[in-house]
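Why Proteasome maturation factor UMP1-domain-containing protein? Reviewers of the renewal asked for a concrete example.
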Amino acid sequence: MEPSYRIVPPSQIKTASISDTAGSLGLHDTLRYGIRSIATQTRGGEFENRITKWEETQDNARLNMLANLYGPSAPMRLLMERQIVSTSPHMPGMPQSNIHLDILMGRDETLDPTDFFLGMESGPPLSVHNEMEKKLRL
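Here is what the prediction returned.
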């Protein structure tokens, strides 16, 4: 956890130039860096980078505010609780839902598509006993 109060992830624009992949003659070195294409030079734009790091940045800001308000033990305790809850097993045959982790992460008051469509493609299990036999290979 690095101390930061950022709400939005920083922009890290990757600019590709011929000087990054140039050999001794000043030309693109294909044997070392592969075939040169527009797709490899523009991969990972600013917007894509911000979207991928959005949750991490928001969580980091929340943990820093907790540390400033309640001391360094508060975020450590929260991180420890998250780790314990994320590794706890679930009952076989029942739909897998980690509501404890959602509460600790602050996602209990938001609605995502996964809240509605998770597990709908297979339907509810017919019997808990059959599911446990399948899992335990009996």
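The mean pLDDT is 77. This is the kind of structural detail the renewal will allow us to pursue systematically.
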